[in-house]
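Example (one chain per record):
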Amino acid sequence: MSADNELRQFSFKLLHRILVTKKELKRYSIKPDDECFFSKCPDSLEFTFLACSVAENCYHEMKIWFNNEQNFY
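Predicted structure:
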């Protein structure tokens, strides 16, 4: 599968809220807990992409990288 197809598949799952997080894995008894791997807070799509401190740090680092690449200050 090409990277373009994988990105489309990920986008589709994200937009339709069918990405699997530990919350869903716990619901179906696949995992014993729903804690975020990094912060031990309850995991969900909203938490993973909006509230997790690791995600926030990643977004911040990407912004710095992008601004450096594009010479934005």
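Caption: The CA atoms of residues 24 and 30 lie 9 Å apart.
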